[in-house]
Every structure is written in structure tokens, then in C-alpha cells.
Design goal:
CATH topology of the largest domain: Adenylosuccinate Synthetase, Chain A, domain 1
Radius of gyration: 22 Å
Number of helices: 13
Largest sheet: 10 strands, mixed
Distance between the termini: 10 Å
CATH architecture of the largest domain: 3-Layer(aba) Sandwich
Structural class: alpha/beta
Shape: globular
Number of domains: 3
Strand order of the largest sheet: 9-7-5-2-10-1-11-15-19-20
Bound molecules: guanosine-5'-diphosphate, 6-O-phosphoryl inosine monophosphate, magnesium ion
Helix content: 25-40%
Length: 433
Amino acid sequence: MSNIVVVGTQWGDEGKGKMVDVLAETARLIVRFQGGNNAGHTIVVDEEPFISHLVPSGILHQNKVCLIGNGVVVDPGVLTEEIQHLRNRGIPVGPNNLLISENAHLIMPYHKLIDHGRERLLRADKKIGTTGRGIGPCYEDKVTRRGIRFCDLIDPKTFKQKLSSILKEKNFYLKEFLKSETMDEEAILEEYLPYAKALRPHVANVSVLINQAIKGGDSVLFEGAQGTHLDIDHGTYPYVTSSNTVAGNACCGAGIGPTQIHGVIGTVKAYTTRVGKGPFPTELFDETGNLIQNRGAEFGATTGRRRRCGWLDTVVVRNSARINSLTGLAITKLDVLSGFETLEICTAYRYKQDRLTEFPSAIRVLEKCEPIYEKLPGWPDDITAIRNVDELPENAVNYVKRIEELVEAPVQIISVGPGRKHTIVLQDPFDSV
Ligand code: GDP
Ligand code: IMO
Ligand code: MG
């Protein structure tokens, strides 16, 4: 048995959902450990797409247990809807295969109003471009010790007390500072108490369950959301999300210790994308950027926004390899690069007179970094039908090998399409640790 974490190495949407779905075959437990419904993970099974925002991407497999860890912020309305949607599509979801940590914090309606209100007040060039799902304001209440957790939700008396005590302050801030509408306590209770009833059977001590499973010899797969460069500490602050998205947080966000993690797979999109605001050194504003965007169908699964696109940036991926101690890489969407005569890979940045090989922390520096590119020959043919690395065009293999060299981590999986079958496994991450 081994326990593996899957993280995004760029700015999210690297194809983590697909990778988790593929690797879930080997695991018994699949655990989300951070973020909330700002995530959008698309999984394609037999040509049918499933989008999940909160439910771990293992849910489409039978006999797996999906867990939402204490580090996740959960909008109970979205979770209830997602469960219903899965059931409507014939996927059984019950307390036998989906459990939520009693310590997970609830996204409340005022969190969403505050998220929207703050973005509205910011000048256009200062906006973060959040998903508007209340993620930041919810984590903020968690850290300032005024959050409401699932263990509170399922006890109506505690829930009412906590809501009453915080709502006065929230309404003052909404009305006086954000000039926004305010919230009615009764209306919130009316909306949230039915969620308590629907979700109560799913609420559990997730840390106990994971540790029991590990003791029993089961493998656990930890599903990251967002990407390393959206991490609150290691990302392009303040253009980041409000949680630690890196592998280290799998421990805190699920309730296990670091000695239980055996491998970390970094999902690397074969090029780079970003939704929302913030610096992006290899962003392309020309026809090539449009081509990548169209061929890759780069639209956000959560907000439908067009994703900004550019060449692969290995300064970014190398930074992720270090921060996450990656043991392997999963290269996704390699098929999208078919047909380009020449491909470019960013190997370093030019900043004033200097050549930078490490990702800079200061946004004012990053914004002025010019990518230094290396050119590689492309390949003309479609590769989506290829299942064996030996059958890939030589230039595609060379592109992957060059990533491996520049990032200094072994490529274990290559994804050549959105489906489960579009996967070339070079080394099974569960076997190699
Ligand atoms: P996540 O947030 O990291 O799970 O990624 P998203 O699901 O938001 O975005 C990745 C998109 O690319 C989804 O629409 C996937 O179905 C799709 N996808 C994943 N891997 C591949 C691949 O190898 N090739 C192609 N063409 N599409 C892929
Ligand atoms: P997955 O898991 C891409 C971005 C938002 C915004 C910033 C802050 O699908 O890879 P937030 O609502 O979290 O406060 O927004 O983070 N963002 C994502 N970008 N993929 C995601 O998740 C994202 N989750 C948040 O666009 O720039
Ligand atoms: Mg996504």
C-alpha cells in the first residue's frame, strides 16, 4: 500500500481531476484536503463529462470511499446539489462512499456577498478575479476563529447561536463598508437547517477513517485543488486563492502526519493557462495563444471564463517540484500541442540585466520578467489514439524528456486526451514509491 498526493504545478486546471480518476483505480480512499467549490474538475468517462467542485474525483468508481477533509471549505448547498446531480446520473452516493469532516468549515451566504462586494470595490487593475464562491471570506473566519463548522451545523442549537453572534458584525460590514445588501438570520436558518438534515449522515471524523484505512493496508489518494502558484504562501500573492494548495497541506487538511505520504505527483499541463488576474510571464496575446486556447478548449469549469494561455514555463514547474517534493510528473494535454511546427519552453526569465532561474516572490519583479525560450520541433500528427510511449512521435518524446530534464523529476504519466483511456502510464506512481 502507498499514499499519494496529486497537486497542480501551475495555476490550476492542469487536469488533476482526470489524473485522480485514473489513479483512483488503485486507491481505496480518495480525499480532498483544501479549497472549496472554486475548484472545477472535469472527468470524462465513456465520452460523458462529469464536473465536480467538491465531491472527490474518485466518486465515479465503485467500492471507493471519498472523503472531504477538514481543510476544505464547504458550501453545503453546492454539495447537496452535486450529490443529487450524481444520483440523477445513476452514480450511487451515500454515507458508505462520501463522508465530510466534522471540522470542515461552512461557506455561509455572507461569505459570498463579501467576496463579490470586495471585488466590486477594487479598481479594475487591483481585482483578484476570484470565483466569487466565498472562499477567501470563509478561510478568513476560520483563521480569526469565528467560522462555523459541520459539527456545529448538525447541532441546530449551536448553529443558531454561532450564526446569531456573527451575523451582527457581518451585516454591519456588508451595509456600511461594502454598501451591499444584508442578511436575515431566519432566512439563513431556513436555508441551512435542511442541509443539516440531508448531510448529517455524511458527517464523520475523517482523520480517524483515513488512519484506520492506512493501518488496514489500504492506499489513499489525496486530491489537490487549484495549483501551486495559487497557494496562499507560495503563489503569486495576492493573486492567489486563500488556502495552501501544496502537497504539505494534505497532512493538515486531512488529519494525518507527513510520515504517511509516500509520493507526490505534480500535474503539468503541456503548456500554461491561468484564469483570473495576476502575472503570467509566458502568456501569449497573439494567434498562437488563441490557437492553444481553442484547441485545448480552455474555458473554466467553474465560472466559464476564458483561460489565458501561453507556452510551458519550466521555471514555474521547477518551483513546484521543489515546494511539493514531487516524486513524479503527469504531463497532460500533450495532444493539444500536435500540429505546431515549433514549440517553445521557457527555461529562465530575463529581469533587467539578470537571468533568473528561480521563481521570484515579488509581484513587481515577476510582472517585469521576460521569458527566455528554448525552441523544440513539434509533431504534425494527432496522438490521441496512442497508448504506448514507443508509438509517440519522436519529437513528442523529446518534448517530454526535455521537461523531465528541466524540472528534474521523472515523468510517470502522459495524458493524450480527456478520457480514461487516453493515458500512457510509464511508471505506476503507486508502485514506484
Ligand atoms: P483540474 O481542475 O486540474 O481538474 O482541470 P480541469 O478539469 O479544470 O481542466 C482540464 C480540462 O482538460 C478538462 O476539461 C479535462 O477534461 C481536459 N483534459 C484533461 N486531460 C486532458 C488531455 O490529456 N487532453 C485533452 N485534450 N484534454 C484533457
Ligand atoms: P481547480 O481545482 C484555476 C483562481 C481564481 C482567482 C484566484 C482566487 O479547478 O484547478 P478564489 O475564488 O479561490 O478566491 O479565487 O484563484 N482559482 C482557480 N483557477 N483553477 C482553480 O481550481 C481555481 N480556484 C481558484 O480564478 O484567480
Ligand atoms: Mg479546474
